[in-house]
Design goal:
mainly alpha, flat
Length: 300
């Protein structure tokens, strides 16, 4: 039997305290920027100019968010981004899951060819100019499909799903096929329910990518009614230097009311508004997400 000496217990206590201090410092360092941005978005411009906002809002106000919603294109941009995220994520899951399930079967003819065919674009691509020419030749300029079709397949997600489908027990599929189930029936009725963690993980990755995307709109879209939320918010931030003058001129605000927000306060409100939907969705997928990212770490 090993007996711990008082010095050993004291060393263990010091080590545990050190770990707590380090972890607490990491938490504070990680969370403080988010809390500070939220506090700035709910504070007046005068408080930000005076450098008085740190954790809690100073002279709380919703004027910063009100200024954002004064932009006439924001509501339409929010609808475009929501439509893109829902449809794009749904179709992406269907395409990638079907491809990964088919390739995960060792008896598939030409299986190695298909795997190589899907992996090559992960390392080699034509570049920006050929891609722009392709989009233009396909007639996707100023089209909502330009947000969805190019992102239907993702090699990284394909490889993750393929690895997971290979690890599923084959007994369920064999029993279902003995009862007369087709491959599609097995896929939708058995494989998908068993793959909820990894599918939720891929769905979250895809949804965040669609929600935050703006560069494709900058390249392929010139109509304001098709601009996504992130690009419109970026335009609001870029034009925030004149936001007070525009607001006072167009909406008849008094000088005192217009002075309650500044470039920095509007920018903070814009950042909070952009990340809010993802923060609302993540708690519902968090338990699946944790399981999904751990797949492949253990074998059994």
């Amino acid at each position: 039997m090993v007996r711990y000496r008082p010095s050993a217990k004291r060393s263990e206590a010091i080590y545990q305290a050190f770990l707590w201090v380090v972890l607490l410092g990491m938490c504070v360092t990680t969370l403080y920027p988010f809390v500070n941005i939220l506090a700035k978005s709910l504070s007046t411009g005068e408080a930000l100019i005076g450098r008085r906002v740190y954790i809690l809002p100073v002279m709380p106000t919703l004027m910063n968010y009100h200024v954002i919603f004064l932009d006439p294109t924001l509501k339409n941009a929010l609808l475009i981004s929501a439509t893109r995220t829902l449809i794009g994520t749904g179709l992406h899951l269907i395409v990638v899951c079907l491809a990964a399930y088919a390739v995960s079967k060792r008896h598939l003819r030409g299986r190695r060819f298909f795997i190589l065919y899907f992996i090559i674009p992960m390392y080699f691509n034509g570049g920006l100019l050929p891609n722009y020419m392709l989009i233009r030749m396909l007639g996707l300029m100023n089209n909502l499909l330009v947000y969805i079709l190019p992102g239907l397949f993702n090699t990284f997600h394909f490889l993750i799903l393929t690895t997971y489908f290979r690890q599923l027990p084959q007994d369920y599929e064999e029993s279902a096929k003995i009862d007369g189930a087709s491959d599609l029936t097995v896929f939708f009725r058995i494989v998908l329910p068993l793959s909820a963690p990894i599918i939720a993980t891929v769905a979250l990755f895809s949804a965040v990518g669609h929600w935050n995307a703006w560069f494709d709109a900058l390249l392929y879209v010139t109509r304001s009614r098709l601009l996504p939320l992130q690009l419109v918010l970026q335009m609001i931030i870029r034009g925030a230097q004149t936001v007070q003058l525009i607001t006072r001129a167009q909406y008849g605000m008094s000088e005192a009311k217009a002075a309650s927000f500044t470039v920095e306060s509007v920018r903070a409100a814009t950042i909070c508004f952009a990340v809010l939907p993802i923060l609302c969705v993540y708690p519902f997928l968090q338990r699946y997400f944790v399981k999904g990212i751990m797949i492949g770490g253990l074998k059994g």
